[in-house]
Every structure is written in structure tokens, then in C-alpha cells.
């Protein structure tokens, strides 16, 4: 059967090629895509400071969200979801990253214990669509499948991991086999210019099926998908080790957060236009939040109040707000820590890196503590231990289910020796970051010789 081409809306994408959406799907998406809050995602890079290491990695949350929505449409079509279910799943995947702040995940480190993550802001962004005006406008465009308060609540529940409807719909939005991961692994790999994140996407979709469990219908794979899901999970591990947790990317993101933290604590001594800017006002409030947390005040109340009071500013922030401040500070004649950090970021002055084995961490922490006690003139950010855990596959968090030729369902780790070996293993990236200006100091070299007598990583 031939469908007239005018019935399709086409988006050209470097990852998925020609992404075709039916005219109906296009109308489901367009009112959200055209909204100011979604357009803001054009100005938030997907990989934070990743492009300082991989120059092509300038893709945005905007690209990814549309890609994720496309993947959801392909999964929905493969497993035979009803049109109304496909609509809700596609909207949820389109909006799943609305809550991200500047530089994506890096910005979350601004808060004590990462108590405020991007997911916490998502309900505030979604609330902007939950109005009579938006529903009326949307339903005029979509006379067949209206959006209601109840339907939109289900969309939000899927995004916020508290779905009350069919579990298989929520699995497409958030699971170990979700549309989000299927898109970002391929997208991040492409834009970084590496092959670590590649897997056979079309075969993965082809292998997907609905699996009946005691908890209801779940998204899983037929036995034909075992090879591709092994490849996919290994791709996830390799992307974490080589891209997401690349030592110099993490070091630069550490510099970025240190700059913002030091600005927040010293806004009264910075340039007036920074103090009165959107970013300055937000940093002032974030610093107060962190101080109140350290003082032992009620976390839940503080968090709720901060999200409510600061959302109006947060919704306007993007990468450009921070780049503008970095450039302004880098050109300053001052010598304070914020200016020094801004210069490192603006002029891409890389710290030196020394990789550590997990068994070295405790000794490194003691040595660094003693070092900073004896060398007060060297800032804490100039010589620091950075460590980040990651886990490729969790048995505990809803394992991927496989259905064999006889319709027997088993978790993936029971079938795959490789995945069994990978399951529930937390791996850790750990290294010393040394500001290049202090690299040759005898006191620094003395600490480094404890771990690398002859060579220091470039």
C-alpha cells in the first residue's frame, strides 16, 4: 500500500537518517516542540563539557528529545500499541528531558549531595502545558485524540517513574531498554566521532515484543535479540568508560562547578552585572540552599521551597548564560579563584591527569588532605581527587526479559554469560586532577611520585 508523501512529516537526522512521522504524529508533537520551554533545549548541550574533548559533541538536548520521540514511535509500531497509547508514549519521550539545566548533568553538582537533579524541575516545566488554554489549542489541532488532565498526568507519571497505567508504556519511556538510551548511545557516539555506542538499532526494534508477567505486560525481547542486547549493554559500558566519564571531560566539568560555587559564595565581590543577572540571582539562592543544608535544616522543605521559588529563573537558564560569565571573568584583571577557573575554561587550559586504581583512593585522599594542610597557598581545586562510579546493567532494577521459541520468559542474565559477568558491578573512574600551573612544584611532584614514579599522564 502506497501512502501519499504529503501525509508524512520528515525530519532529517544524522543518526536515524530520514525520521518519518505521520501527519497525525506530527500534530501530536508540534504544539510541544514550538513552545518556548522546549525550544530552550536547543541551547543546552547534551554532553556538558564533552565538546572540549570531542569537538563534534555540540549536539543538544533538543536533538536528543526529538530522536527519543522517534525511537518511541518505532517501538510502539513494532509492538502494536493502540494509537492513543502511542500518542502518550511519544509525548512522554519528547518531554522527558525538559528539566535539564545548563551543561546537562554537570549543573546538578552545584547542589550539596546533588540533592536537586534535573528530574526535580520536570513537573514545573510540565505544569506550563497543563492549562485550559494549551489543552484547547492542542485539541483543536488533534480532534481525534484530545489531551486531557488525566491523560497528561499519565504522561507525567511515565516521565517521573511512577506510572500507574500499563507498565509496557512506561518501559518505553524509562527502563533498561528505553527509547532514551537507544537514542543517546547512538547519538553521543556519532557526534563524538567514536564507535563505542553503536549497535544494530533496527534489529533491536525488530526483536522487541510484549512479554506477559505477573505484574502485567512488559517490554522485552524475543530470543533473536540476545546478540543485539549484549552488544547494546556493552556499548553502554564503553560509552561510560570512554566518553561520559572521560577524565578530562570530568575535570573540566569539575572546574565549571567550582567556578559556579565560588561565584555563588562571593557574589558581593564580583562584577555588578553578574550579581544582578539571572545566573547571579540563581547562584545566590543556590548558595543559601547549600548553607541551609549544611546547617541541618529540613531537606524536604528546603528542596520544595527552592524549586518553587527559583523555577522562574531556572526555566530561562541555558549554556549561554554561563559562557557569558566565563568570558567576562576570563578578561578580568582580578586574581581570585573564580577568575582563575574562568581563564582555565575560556582558554581551555587543561589540567594534568594521573589515573588511579581503586585501591589507591584511600591513600590518595590522605595524601591530598595532608598536602592541602601544608600548602595553604594552593587552592583546593588545583589538586584534587575525582571519582565517579558507573554501572552498565542492574539485575535489581527490572532486568531485561527474553522470551524463547517456546514462550518461556527468563531474565537476560540467566541466558547470557557475558551479561551475568557484567551485572550489578559498579566500576569506578578515579584520577588526580592537577592544575598545570602547579605541576612542577616539588611538593606536588612528591605526592605524584607515590603513584607514578616516572610518568604523569598528559
Largest sheet: 4 strands, mixed
Question: With helices defined by DSSP (H or I, 4 residues minimum), what is the helix count?
Answer: 21
Number of strands: 9
**What is the helix fraction of residues, given as a range?**
40-55%
Domains (count)? 3
**Mean pLDDT, rounded to whole units?**
93
Radius of gyration, Cα only, in angstroms? 24 Å
Strand content: 5-15%
Q: What is the SS-derived class?
A: alpha+beta
Poorly predicted runs of 5 or more residues: 1-5
The CATH topology of the largest domain comes to Hypothetical protein af1432
Descriptive terms for the model:
458 residues; alpha+beta; Hypothetical protein af1432; Alpha-Beta Plaits; 3 domains; four-stranded mixed beta sheet; three-stranded antiparallel beta sheet; 51% helix; globular
